Amino acid sequence: MKIYNTMSRRKEEFVPIQPGKVGIYVCGPTVYDLIHIGNARPMIVFDTLRRYLTHRGYEVNYVSNFTDVDDKIIKRANEEGVSADEISEKYIAECRKDMESLNVLPATVHPQATKEIPDMIGLVEKLIGGGHAYEKNGTVYFRTRSFPGYGKLSHKNIDELESGHRDEAHQLKVSGESEKEDPLDFVLWKPKKEGEPFWKSPWSEGRPGWHLECSCMSAKYIGGTLDIHAGGEDLVFPHHENEIAQSEAANGQPFANYWMHNAFLKINGEKMAKSLGNFFTVRDITAQVDPMIVRFFMLSVHYRRALNFSQELVQDAGTSLERIRNCYDKLKEKAGTGTPLGEEEEEKKKEADILLEKFDAAMDDDLNTADAISAVFEFVRTVNAFLAAGISGELAGIFLKALSTVMEDVLGVKLAREAGLLDEEVEQLITERTEARKAKNFARADEIRQLLLEKGIVLEDTREGVKWKRT
Question: CA 105 to CA 233: how far, in whole Å?
Fold first, then answer.
């Protein structure tokens, strides 16, 4: 298998540190709100990487954290008049629900920053002892220039970074706010402010810097050098760059052998932002669209390509997935007949092996899920032709197993349909909604529309009456 390594900017043959075992660390969300659709992309992409490596026989230790102490969490807690712990625990539970709906497997470990503070204090002490960090009035900074490799992941030149910080540094020094030896130095530990959660440390009552958390949690739950470190491309700098600096300065060994980053997700061609009104949570989207369509859509484009999320494109993905599901349904029905394989079908059954070979070849090429899905469609076309001509139950079972392996086990897209409403049940609910509207019971009318939407039924009020369709 070849992986595009952000560090080297080229595809490299994947060779794990321990034969047959893989340690993967993926940066998880900061839990102060429901996760948005952009958070879902790395979750789905790297869950698929994990599934594929498992499919290829590796024992995978998959670690993905929850950042449960952060300025945004504290702000949300103050707004709601509750503790930061209550906010983080609430949204960790909500995140798990969304992950489950998207069929993202739970990590081997989901560490939480607040439960790993002693290890973080230990790492800071080690960095101070090695001359890589210093304390000023309770704040501890990493001495960036003490690490010669700084910038090697993001391919940023440290002198150019210095130039970019010069005006900011001058302004801070004039105002007396800067205590850093160098404007490039970053925070490892910071003192508490009034009303903030804190922990005792040798320097102050305070909390760790964001970058410190992942260095400690990845080392504790995977240990030594990581096989793969992954996340969104927005984390390359400064987060991942700073992780490398503090980890390698402390331990004197490579932090990770392979770095994988997924590209941004855009909404209707624009960057997602609350200010633009195009900010959608996973909960928003999956209330209207089958979560498996969302997952399939996310995997239909290579993870290193920017992904444009629009209603039309998601609907197209739903139509495409429907073709695969229809084939799956026919195979399942035929397999249930149990008729034995005919002599003339020996050649046909090779199509299952051809699918697996093409699928694995695509996935081995830097997790190319787009090409892997193309191989699935080739298989579906061939199998549909066989089904039209008539095949045995045994052959249908062979094809069904191959299709389930690639779509469900590896891509994580469930093909079995959830039980939906019968046509007459839909009509009954539409009649009830019409009566509710006549009685001006708009709350009940809206409730029925939402219920139908959750079941994949879209209503359209026209002059001729209510029309409906399945999505």
Answer: 22
